[in-house]
Every structure is written in C-alpha cells, then in structure tokens.
Amino acid sequence: MPRPLRYVGVIGRGGLVAIRLGIVGTGKIVRDQHLAAIAGNPAFALLATADPAAAAMTGVPHYPDMAAMLAAHTDIQALAICTTPQVRGQLVLDAVARGLHVLCEKPPASGMAQAQAMADAAHAGGVTLFAAWHSRFAAGVEPARAWLAGRAIRSISITWREDVCHWHPGQRWIDLAGGMGVFDPGINALSILTALLAEPVTMASASLEVPDNWQTPIAARLAMRTASGLPVAADFDFRQQGPQTWRIAVETDAGTLALDLGGAHLTLPGQAASPPAPDGEYAALYARFADLIARGESDFDLAPLALVADAFLLGERHPAPAFTH
Amino acid sequence: MPRPLRYVGVIGRGGLVAIRLGIVGTGKIVRDQHLAAIAGNPAFALLATADPAAAAMTGVPHYPDMAAMLAAHTDIQALAICTTPQVRGQLVLDAVARGLHVLCEKPPASGMAQAQAMADAAHAGGVTLFAAWHSRFAAGVEPARAWLAGRAIRSISITWREDVCHWHPGQRWIDLAGGMGVFDPGINALSILTALLAEPVTMASASLEVPDNWQTPIAARLAMRTASGLPVAADFDFRQQGPQTWRIAVETDAGTLALDLGGAHLTLPGQAASPPAPDGEYAALYARFADLIARGESDFDLAPLALVADAFLLGERHPAPAFTH
Questions:
Q1: Out of A219, A260, A298, A312, which residue is the most buried by the measure of CB atoms under 10 Å away?
Q2: Would the CB atoms of B202 and A316 count as touching at under 8 Å?
Q3: Half-sphere exposure in the Cβ direction for A163 (13 Å, CA)
Q4: Where is the Gfo/Idh/MocA-like oxidoreductase N-terminal domain (chains A, B) (predicted)?
C-alpha cells in the first residue's frame, strides 16, 4: 500500500551520496518513464544499462546483458530490472544473490513460486526488493484509499479497456505464454484495487477470451469478492478503439467514488471533478525505492500477481478471432 | 514438510477426549480413505457429515450442507473439508471464521489469493489449518528426504501417468475450469517434490495439452528448476492405459533414488527394492491433524499450489482431441 512519500537519500561520509544504479532491459517503458524519473532524482546516479536488443541511449555505457554490465561496473549497488516478464524473475534472483537492491518493473515475477523465492532470497540476503506497482502511485490512489477508510463499501466495478495496437505495437511477448495478455495492463487495476481495500480480495470466477493466434487472453471478465463478501467485478479488454478507459468505481454508503485515467483522476461524491494531476508515478516509484533502501526494507506485495495467476488457474477460456497488433 | 509423526490426543478433564469432527463433502476420497482413517484414530469422534449430492453413509447424521450440519451440531470442533476444489475455499473461510479447526483436502484452495486469505484468517483466529498433502505421508517420502539431505542432487525427473477413466470416472469437475485436470494427481507429485528438497522450486516453462471438450489440461510437460539451478522435469498424463506410473527419480552423486507408487515404494542406489509398505497416508494425515490441533499450530504449505498456478500462468497450451472419461 502506498505510504506518504518522503525523500531519503543515502548519507555517506561526504554527505548525500547517490545510489549507483544500473538498468536491465531498456524497452519502451524505460524510455517513456524510467529515464526521466531517475534523471530527476538526485538519490540515484545511473551508471550503465544492459539490453541485448537495444542500443545505448542515455550517454552511459551500454552492455548486451546484466552479467557484462556488472562485470564492468562492480560498484553498482542497485538495479532496475525492466525486461519482459518471461526473463525478469531469474535476473532478479541473480541480482539479489549478488547483494544488489532491486526495483522490479511489474509484474515482479513470471509466477508465484518464483516471486516467493525472490522474496525469501532478498530477506535472507538483507537487500531491498521493491515490486514497482506504478499505478499505486497515481495521484488519486492515496486520497481515494484515505477517503474509503471511513466508509462502508457496497461494491466495486473496474473497467480497463485499451488498444493494444496503440500501447504495445508489435510487442509479441504480450501474447506469448507468460506474457499475460490483457492482464499486463489489468494488473495495474488489480494493484490499485488491493491498495484501496483494507481486506483481502479473492477470485471467484473468470471468463477469458483468447484469440486463435494468442496464448494469453485479449479480454477478461472477473468476478472477485472481498473477505467480507463484497463483490468486485472487472472488465478488461485490449481491443478498445476510440476513447480509452481505465476506471475504478466504488459504491459506498456515501455515494460513488470514481478513479479514472488509471488512478490519476479522483472524483468524490458531490464534488466537482478535479483536474488530473501531472503524471508523477515513476518519480514517486524511485523516491519510494530510495526510501526503502535507506530504511533497509522491502516492499514486495504479491496480491496483484496472485489474482492474475488465479484468473489463469480458474478462468474459463473462450476462443476469439485471431488478432494482430 | 512431513515431520516424524507422533500421536497426541487432546487431554480433557476426564482424560483423553476426542476431537468432535464433521466432514463436508462425502465423495469418493472420503469413502475410500477418510472414513477408515477417522474410525481408526481415537483422537477423533465423527459427529456428522454434509453433502448436497450424497446420502448418509456412516451411521452419523447427514445434512445437505455445512451450515445445516453446524446448526444441528454446535459442539463440532473441527472439520475435514473434502468437496470439489471449486467450492472448497469459501467453505474453509467460513469454517475458520466460526473458530473451527480445518483439514483441507488437496488442493487446499481454488487459488493463491484465496489460500493466502485462508492462512491469514486461521492465523488471526487462532485455529489450526492443515493443507492435507496426503502423498507427503506415503511410506517412502520421509526416508527419501532424509537420505537426500546428505547427497548432492544433479537432476530430478517426475513421471505421473494415470488413467482418468479409472480414477475419476464421470467426475466432470476435474475437466471444468478450476478443476485443474491432470494437475489434480500431478499436484501430489509436486507436494512430494517440494517436501524432498531443502530449496525452493520455480516453474521455468510448461507445455499443456487441452482437449477440445476440456477447460483443463489432460497432459503437461513441466520444466522447473531449483534455486541453485538444478533441473526438475515432469511428465503428467491422464490418458495412461495399462500400467500406471507415479514415479520420482532423483539423480545424485551417489546414484539414483527412485520413489514409485506415488511415494509408497523407495529404492535407494545399490539396495534391493523393498516391498511397498501398507497404505498409511490418511491415517498419518489424521494423526498429524490431531497433533497440530494439540500444539495449536497450522501446516498450510502453498508451494505445490503455487507451482500449479504458475503452470497455468506460464504454460503454452496445445489443443488435443476431445476426451470423455
């Protein structure tokens, strides 16, 4: 659950010393979000990047893989691991075994057993492991959680519909086994859901649409419930053209709370819609990562991944027409 | 992990007082295994059974559901919940909320989020929750674990091939969403695997064969690895005619250890095969359940279920011909 953020650097003999960082996997999300967030945070100094399929891009040395990068930069203290999910887990385990602090892009592992092994290894090794559920740091999420804490919730409805052709053009990893399909964005909604609620959520049933040329679902309808029996419905679809929808609506005894734009925009009952705040999710992620390292803590919540695993485990699959993105 | 078993009853004012037990779900496994194990254990007194689809069978009162049974027998202290997995989880959560100790047939929950909620609720409520991985109590498992503890393992190979038509005739729940298909027996192998090893196991990749008229896999090939990198291969198949195979072979620096007959039959390198011991798995399960209640402890290991969830999450699905059982 997101906590109030505060800036905590690492204090060395000479004063504030930046954490020496490497990035593993330099795909779209790194170009779109990580680099600016790191550049804007004096707690981090980016030393190098690694990716077998990308060129150098940042003015720092670039390597074909994590091992080569770490061999050349033995002073790296922390990694942001942002590869595709299929290879992320083993890299994280290797990094933790080397005593490095790790920020894991979401989803933090390719499966639950691996995630548990990662958590155990980080705990045993005394390093910080951070599951970077970026949507939990969207501007509306923490105010929504605080407002809901005093209300009786009746039901929750999630609508997460976006155009995979726009957001993941040609990214085949998302439709291959292990790529999670529409749960790649959908897990963001589940990360917000599990941060908003004070009680656990479980999967009751799921209906998954799987295109003939995909291994993963392109759409999903989920029926979840909280421990106290409240219904939570979710509608995920990757074929949304026109306006995109990332909305969580919470019915309460005091009216409907709505989070739109993936958590950025909060509307409380009876209040005028406030303008969306500027996107500060990744800036907040890196502030939190620095904070965790300074405190010697980890933040590795697996609740969103467990719900995705359960949707695959329990879900009824229905064929859908082939779809190319 | 199985520990040495010892008999511990519950000591009341009048001496040894049996734990008052109810059974929820009275299908094949209850008739085949649970009733005899309970009858043979003086630590338990069976008070009643509940199942909407079965008739009374044991000389004790029978009810259409758990709520009716508990309303009529308010002195029940513990439940064995043996329904199909699709409905088991919520019943366990309800039972734990009533302050009852619970033995859960395997798999203990329909998903990982639910399993975690069950563990948390039992911990908060101070009741015993026991995930009854019966294969861990097969005669060869504990001796195998002890022998392996002193050896260097090189690789592990699991072959679990049985005839669904023989073992689950007409049981449609096994091929419906949430029924787990060939992982229903396969999870037994995974429960032994995770009990044999001192380190965690994760799923690297999986190939699943799914018949056109099934929602769940009828066969699976799994590539797992241990935290130290040892390969673990598994071959599960539900279409095995003729001899049935439930075998785990462990290659070590001191030769090959083989567990056959689902863990009942242990062969150590250079030793003559010992005759299979009589089947005592469910007797040992109930002894362990009584022991846990007496100690005020739970034993709710989710490692086998996590591996199954991961096989569904990561697995590549391949169509297979329709199959009726």
A1: A312
A2: no
A3: 8
A4: 19-130
Nearest CA in chain B to A121: B227
Q: What is the pLDDT of residues B70-122, one digit of tens each?
A: 999 999 999 999 998 778 888 999 999 999 999 999 999 989 999 999 999 99
Task: Please give the Cα distance from A163 to B103 (Å, whole number).
Answer: 46
What is the value of pTM for the model shown? Answer: 0.90
- What's at A307, amino acid-wise? L
Considering the domain boundaries, does residue B301 fall inside one? Answer: no
Shortest alpha-carbon distance between residue B142 and chain A (Å): 23
Q: Which residue has the tokens 């492991």?
A: A129
Among B66, B98, B132, residue at a domain's last position = B132
ipTM: 0.88
DSSP for A290-320, written as a single string = HHHHHHT--B---HHHHHHHHHHHHPEEEEE
Token pair 């887990």 is at which residue?
A89
Question: For residue B307, what is the nearest residue in chain A, using CA coordinates?
Answer: A113
> What does the angle CA B117 – CA B316 – CA B204 come to, to the nearest 5 degrees?
65
**Which amino acid type is present at position B111?**
G
Closest CA to A190 of A216, A237, A224, A215: A224
Residue-number span of the structural domain to which B202 is assigned: 136-268+308-320
Number of domains into which chain B is organized: 2
Q: Are A302 and A117 in contact (CB under 8 A)?
A: no
Q: What confidence tens digit (pLDDT) does each residue in A224-272 have? A: 999 889 999 999 999 999 999 999 999 999 999 999 999 999 999 988 7
pLDDT at B205 over 70: yes
CATH number at residue A23: 3.40.50.720
Nearest CA in chain B to A175: B316
For the cut 60, the answer to whether the pLDDT of residue A8 exceeds it is no
CB contact under 8 A, A180 and B112: no
Mean pLDDT confidence for A131-154: 95
Domain assignment present for residue B189? The answer is yes
pLDDT at res. A59: 86
Helix (H, G, I), strand (E, B) or coil at B303: helix
Share the mean pLDDT of chain B: 91
pLDDT score at A16: 60
- Chain A interface includes B112 (CB < 8 A): yes
B164 touches chain A (CB under 8 A): no
A95 falls within a domain: yes
CB within 8 Å: B177 and A201: no
pLDDT digits (tens, 9 = 90+) for A96-139: 999 999 999 999 998 999 999 999 999 999 999 999 999 999 99
Instruction: Kindly calculate the radius of gyration of chain B based on its CA atoms and give it in whole angstroms.
Output: 20
- Summarize pLDDT for A43-90 with one digit per residue, the tens: 999 999 999 988 777 789 999 999 999 999 999 999 999 998 778 888
Q: Which residues in chain B (204-243) have CB-CB distances under 8 A to chain A?
A: 205-206, 215, 227
B310 contacts in chain A (CB < 8 Å):
110-114, 309
- The DSSP code sequence of B151-212 is S-EEEEEEEEE-BHHHHSTT-GGGTSTTS-TTHHHHHHHHHHHHHH-SS-EEEEEEEEEEET
Q: Find the CATH number of the domain harbouring A159.
A: 3.30.360.10
CB–CB contact A200 B317 (8 Å): no
> B99, B116, B132: which is the final residue of a domain?
B132
pLDDT surpassing 60 at residue A11: no
Tell whether B177 is within 8 A of chain A (Cβ): yes
Q: Is the peptide bond before A107 cis (omega within 30 degrees of 0)?
A: yes
